[in-house]
Write a structure and sequence with these properties.
homodimer; 316 residues; five-stranded mixed sheet; 13 strands
């Protein structure tokens, strides 16, 4: 097979369809995006995905025939072998033959995978994990997603695997979107942090948490970190608790996969070292066999949103 | 390389050294065992491992030169690439060059892996998972071990991976041998079940649990199952709770690996379908994406102790 110059990566999200044209150096040389508007019939979303690809190609006057193929990162449970989105509560899709439908529209081979998988692959090939053959990437956003690279390759499990966010942290605890109680997602997502911060603000009306919530109109994931910097007791408690929960979750993945590196992405990661330093300490203390074996680096993933597009392009 | 007729498998345990000579049909055609007596210097244990191999070969009058190599399943954290037992609290070993030392003694190539890994490999090749390319095996004994087969191959992670028992079930819960609190091992091991049964017997002196404990001298992992059959309320509660915990743990591994099959081994598995049937129901209800994707079979591993020996032999 003649390796074409460009590959197309699509990051399908609950809010936006993002497309990037990726060259051999793993650079995004053109991009385009449209709103997902997930509430409409899925065929229309697919039409817009194809149009967004054309938008991006037009910007650099590249013909679609100069491209090798299309990779798509989608939220949810993916049958990567057959190119089907089995279930995504995020975009309310079930059994959508995504690869086949996009192939029809653009006449290029299409591969699909879970969005967190694509982010992990992108970081491993072009980002923070460039020299690292074994890594775990966690996306900390509305939910918690996970992607794992083993021996330089994306680990996809069998059909629909790799739901790292849907493993227990506190069985019987907070309700999770997946129908269980106490999943990592229910505690380590931005949603989980906001829930706890709201509880604290409700109970402690004199706290800075409550004052900042009132100013902003509602709680968000940054407020507890900001309030902690100023020394608010409740914020300190909430963030310590969050870091312990995330430390427990990361320790689990370390005990299973023994990666060289754990990468964090998503909104909360704007906190940088004030997040990763205590996590590192936590994992060093609690990982099985402790310091007898090498403890992985814990870092903020540097490609941010581009990782998903670059990773998707590399599914081809 | 000329494939010899026999391979040697060693199952190194806290109590016994078990050796089997395995033929091409994955049958153990001769076996021998000695006590580990783990409290003595490790060199003596290694000497006895070599002698036990010779004992087994003698029984069928096979020369060691007719063997292809030796595989060893050891408890603990293993560096399988370099043949080193990094840390095993079970046999109190640290940084033991096991492969090299046995090679010296028997002049055959030696490969080592974690004991639960070997059991998973044995079941995949010759036992319950014979036609199954993706499986998770859990050993439910003093602790909880795990082995994973992906695409027909043993998944070893990087150095020392695969500590499935040391992932959280209830963060901050019962103390675990690994130094954390609330690991799967602390709840789903026979040790965990016995702890809970003891608590119940202490609190409810009229319960059958307490009567059977008194008769037997101490609690064991069978008493709660037996007392449940007779309708003891406390035993019913304890076993339901145990099944829920184990169901949660299995659901975690299913969400990560999406195996076709989950195999259970260890003492508690004598309970058969009264254990696996409710677990199946639990996982069907709570696995991510539910019945939209195929739920794995949950079965008792059929090779029992032989799985570890056969799996070890197949490391070679």
């Amino acid at each position: 097979m003649n390796m074409q110059t460009y590959r197309i990566g699509i990051d399908l999200g609950g809010t936006n369809i993002k497309v990037g044209i990726v060259n051999k150096k793993q650079e995004i040389i053109a991009s385009a995006s449209r709103k997902t508007r997930k509430e409409r019939p899925y065929q229309e979303v697919l039409d817009d995905m194809a149009e967004t690809v054309k938008d991006a190609l037009k910007k650099i006057e590249v013909s679609i025939t100069a491209c090798n193929g299309i990779g798509i990162g989608s939220p949810g449970t993916i049958d990567h072998e057959n190119g089907i989105v089995i279930y995504s509560n995020n975009i309310s899709w079930e059994q959508i033959p995504l690869a086949e439908e996009i192939e029809k529209r653009l006449s290029l081979p299409v591969k699909i995978s879970n969005d967190a998988n694509c982010a992990a692959l992108g970081e491993a090939l072009a980002g923070s994990g460039k020299d690292c053959k074994n890594l775990v990437l966690l996306t900390l956003g509305t939910g918690v997603g996970g992607g794992v690279i083993i021996d330089g390759k994306l680990f996809q499990g069998r059909i629909g695997g790799m739901e790292l966010g849907h493993t227990t942290l506190i069985a019987g605890g907070e309700p999770c979107t997946c129908g269980r109680q106490g999943c990592v997602e229910a505690y380590c997502s931005a949603t989980g942090l906001i829930r706890e911060a709201n509880k604290a603000a409700d109970c402690f009306p004199d706290s800075l948490l409550e004052k900042m919530r009132e100013e902003m109109g509602e709680m968000n994931g940054k407020i507890p970190f900001e309030a902690r910097k100023i020394g608010d007791k409740q914020a300190i408690r909430i963030i310590n608790q969050y870091i312990n929960w995330l430390g427990e979750a990361i320790t689990n993945y370390v005990n299973i996969f023994r990666p060289q590196m754990v990468l964090l992405s998503g909104g909360i990661c704007g906190q940088g070292k004030s997040l990763t330093d205590p996590l590192k300490k936590y994992v060093e203390t609690y990982a099985f066999a402790g310091k007898r074996i090498s403890i992985p680096k814990i870092e903020i993933a540097k490609l941010g949103n581009d990782a998903g597009i670059i990773g998707a392009a590399n599914l081809v």
